[in-house]
């Protein structure tokens, strides 16, 4: 984090550490200080000055940086401090918890108020922004930690180094469980339970959640096992957490409902006012006496710290505060839940999202019954109002365009676990498609809702999910339950979990399309994937492996899939270095009677002329293949001559052949002309990007005029054509009864050429509907007018 940049060879001076609440930002700050004090790391700094934004909230303004430092370090006299500040390159300032600041610190406001004197009195926000802008103590290093949502006010582009704390990896979660439970067998039972719950397992990347989850699960898996259902949702988890605290300290609290009601009201006040840190005046306002903090109950919910000779309080975790805030309208009849819901709907900064999830989850019968046993009855009116709101809100969001709001509403539905409500809202939709990339939690919730609505045949298509790899196993597990899905940008996920994906293919018969475009499974990944593709349960119809770093080494496995999986009809392999030997291996599978492939895309696969013999053999054997895409390969005239033998075979049923940019010249056109006059199934031919020239078109026109030619679409873009070929093309237009689309873009036909074409277009036998002549140099206004007149006189004809 503090190392020199490879690009500039300089140390970064402005650093932002981002991470969710409880992920370990403050712990990292403590580790930095510990390593510095013990001499392990960061020794280029002579002094480190750490500040917490929560401490600065109560600081009287105006103030100066010098005053802030002296207040934190009373032993530093002003003269000594001045000497220290003269060498800013030796100083590190850390400001922890930007999201906890009550000061309006906005780095995006231009022009910024700046300060260049450490003894100048100004606002704290000005001191922080001036340090970050390097107008104050230029050359010092500044670190700010924050939750992602508070970083909206930071000009990230101006920050020299950004670090995100992503939390526990899959292996680290397992290690944490082993360390938390003294009995290894118990730890594995608890861990396996969590692994089976995709939502809870995913949440375990956060160390704070991991601790809360282990604390809640302990009674379920230790010797004092209880015969109750383990938590499945986040609301159930936090309800269990609070219940456990209440039960463990039931002898201390007197009336736990009254105490928890007051704490919940303070939590809700904090959410309303973006307040994460409370002081004694806040405690008194909500009838929470500081003396009560001596109880174990209070200590397990609130954390107490000393800040400049005063006590401050924070909830154990931001999510604990949000859960208790959601509990408030169910405990306190004076809290208007309708007002809360309206406020949450109108708030755009996202701070009510988790609270809404909890409000919805607390309406679940099992959840509120558990709390009722300890706290007494919860407000039935609040429960009814929340459920009515959720039903109305879901119906509205399903018709709106805000995907963020819809995803949040779907999360609320998930927390209710209310099958009837889910089916009466989401289940009434004929389709539900989320085109944008979504996070793993949202994806898993989406899958749950689809499964819940499955009896009503809710259909989803083109669902795209973006993963960095750390939660891909949960994503794979969800795939086993529902399809079809469209996967993209999953490089790390696939590299780590291709075995799991193979398992999905062998179990999920509803999955029809699998796209791994621009992933990097490599040949070994395809080897593992092919096992699932060969399974009789696999019903994949389209497999997209475009630009996946494949070579000829994987083609044997793919060939085996082609000869085994008769449901596979489309195979996209463009952008891979398969070469001649790769096609040779593929051709064995393509010629197998079990192969039912309709489309084979081998564009840009570094194929030479030598592979065309194998492809020709495939064409004369496989009567199911109707589309062959070979653009951007160096096949040359000799390759096409070889290919044409298969194209003329009576067994060949090819309908589309693409040979764009394949190094072709007029030398192959006689062979192609022979194909056109022989193969009546071919309806689309692309020859764009080849140097065919006028002589090549002359040869092709012979086949195009043949009665057996049924070509409908012909592409001659960028083929070096001039007016000299237009008489032949005009003859084709007036003769062919099938040609409807002709592409002549990016050639040099000029007025004289277009006049010849116009003659063919006017012929009553001409069936052309689309003529493309874009970027043809030298077309006069008169010629353009003549073409426009032609279009107006001939209905159904378009000229571009």
What this model shows, in words?
The chain contains 33 helices and 19 strands. Mean pLDDT is 85; it is low at 455-474 and 480-497. It is α/β, with parallel strands linked by helices and 800 residues long. It folds into five domains: 14-164, Rossmann fold (3-Layer(aba) Sandwich), CATH 3.40.50.300; 170-230; 256-431, no CATH class; 456-470 and 481-606, Ribonuclease Inhibitor (Leucine-rich repeat, LRR (right-handed beta-alpha superhelix), Alpha-Beta Horseshoe); 658-799, Ribonuclease Inhibitor (Leucine-rich repeat, LRR (right-handed beta-alpha superhelix)), CATH 3.80.10. Helix 28 (636-647) packs parallel to helix 29. It is 45% helix and 9% strand. The strands form three sheets. It has an eleven-stranded parallel beta sheet. A five-stranded parallel beta sheet has the order 2-3-4-1-5, sandwiched between helices. The longest helix is centred in the middle third of the chain and has 18 residues, at 380-397. The two termini are 56 Å apart.
User: Which of globular, elongated, flat, extended, rod-shaped describes the shape?
Assistant: elongated
Q: What's the number of helices?
A: 33
- How many structural domains? 5
How confident is the prediction overall: mean pLDDT? 85
Strand order of the largest sheet: 9-10-11-12-13-14-15-16-17-18-19
Total strands: the figure is 19
Find the structural class using helix and strand composition: alpha/beta
Rg: 35 Å
- Level of helix content? 40-55%
Largest sheet: 11 strands, parallel
Uncertain residue segments: 455-474, 480-497
What is the terminal separation in angstroms? 56 Å
Quote the beta fraction.
5-15%
Family: Belongs to the NLRP family.
Pfam families: LRR_6, NACHT, NLRC4_HD2, WHD_NOD2
Keywords: ATP-binding, Cytoplasm, Inflammasome, Inflammatory response, Nucleotide-binding, Repeat, Ubl conjugation
GO biological process, one term: innate immune response
